[in-house]
Amino acid sequence: KENNTKLRAVTFKQIISAVSTTDRAKNIMKLWKLAEDKNIQKAISLITKNSMMSLSPNPTLNWFNLTAAKVLILSDEMEAAKKWIFFGTSDIEERASIDVNFCRLLIFTCLYDSNILDHENQNLDLNFFLKVLKNDLNINEKDFLRLILTLNALGRDIPIEMWEIFFTNETISSEYFKFIRNDTSNYFMLDNAISNNNIAEAALLSISFLQNEIGLYKEMFSFYKGLKGLNSIGLESYARSYAMEENFYFLLK
């Protein structure tokens, strides 16, 4: 009755002892839901990785596709995750437009691997997926702002209409947009360190910005500068890992 260690251990035992692929998938999904309640998805993904890799997409497991993809992404098995993401999907944009969870998963996967947008000769448009997500009635606009700042910091061009929503929405106070306060000189120091290819200084300043948590939108601009700083000095893999971590709950929970 309680989501405790014993219940999760028993569920894991059921996974590894399951004979049929359907039973194994059902128990992986059960354990994933228990992990969501405790915010331990990364750990659960790693310990179920081998069991997950023993499964392959098929029509009888279509209900399991998105969960399987999440488990594999978090356990660093991107190629295997792609097979589950795209299985049985001929028109990716059409599916994303009617299934916002699929749309969220695509965007999250793009944070990990930008090449996902070039799938089987389909030139997928990230901006199309962002528009679908922005039009979701249940969207958290502050989380959406963090997402587009993330994508922009990683080198993606963001359409102007994505930014305009925050200046026309009365629920977000204009006070939140006073980005630059006490860190003004540090922002310029970071830009200068990047220009001079001073990797150590740029990395330290970037990390400092990523840890700044004073006020939501000041944090967001520091987050943007820090992430962009890491990406600009050749530490793209670290930037992407941090980006996935920061946007995980908005896109996948």
Q: Secondary-structure blueprint of this entry?
A:
Layout lengths: L4 H13 L3 H18 L2 H7 L1 H5 L11 H10 L3 H9 L5 H7 L1 H13 L5 E2 L2 E2 L2 H9 L6 H13 L6 H9 L15 H12 L3 H12 L5 H17 L3 H17 L1
Antiparallel strand pairs: 1-2
Helix pairs in contact: 1-2, 2-3, 3-5, 5-6, 5-8, 7-8, 8-9, 8-15, 10-14, 10-15, 12-13, 12-14, 13-14, 14-15
Q: What is the CA-based Rg, rounded?
A: 20 Å
**Order of strands in the sheet with the most strands?**
1-2
Largest sheet: 2 strands, antiparallel
The coarse overall form would be globular
What is the SS-derived class? mainly alpha
Helix content: 55-70%
**Termini distance?**
22 Å
Which stretches are low in confidence, meaning pLDDT under 50 for 5 or more residues running? none
Strand content: under 5%
Average residue pLDDT: 84
Number of strands: 2
Supply the number of helical segments.
15
What is the N-to-C succession of helices and strands? HHHHHHHHEEHHHHHHH
